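Researcher: Go.
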Amino acid sequence: MSSFVRKILRGEEGGTQEQTIPLCPYCKQALEQRPQRKKKCPFCKNFIYARTLPSTRAKVLATEAEAKKIDAEWAGVHFQNEWLDSLEQYGVTKRDFELHKRRLSEESGREPSDEDVIGSLLGNLAAKTRDLQKRKMIYYEIALFLDQQGKDPFEALQQSARMDLMKFKKDGFVRRVSILTAGQDSCEVCRRLQGRVLTIEEALEKMPIPCRECAHRMHDEDRGFCRCRYAAEIE
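Model: Structure:
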């Protein structure tokens, strides 16, 4: 539980726990009814915000500043849950997350963020997984994670595409591949690659996808996120 949450539960901040008589978090005047959403206090005219604390699920009345802090905590909860769901398909549990977080804390001497832990777990998975199909998927997850963090996903996307080609080569049934784009939703640069056919060796040497000039945006508005992929050419 964060120090902010402890303060708000004790009433040291403006918000209060569920009460028989709700109080304005600013002026502490008793309100006739508990606000269910944003509402102006009839006494001090400040806006009161109804929120639920993520750690305790207690309903509180908060100032604007407190509401923003609570919303930020909820964003962190949703972020962690989203990525724990993604990691679960690779066998990573909530307990694994907590143990890895503790290990990183001991190694660095500081409390790692959830972003640090998730990024480290993804990197470990990519390094340890030998199955090329799974490594392809993990590198794609890493690309999504980096893009969500405002970091360049290009190298992770490139590794994902490389795993695809290496799997085709290892299987031995496919000698040539074609490039598939995201159709009409693709950017103009990627659409020009649609249907291009290469041998696996050519594709590994030239790595035409992901396209560095891709203009499609996923999370990061400053960088492209290429969604082109390879398809087997059956001879």
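Model: The chain has eight helices and six strands.
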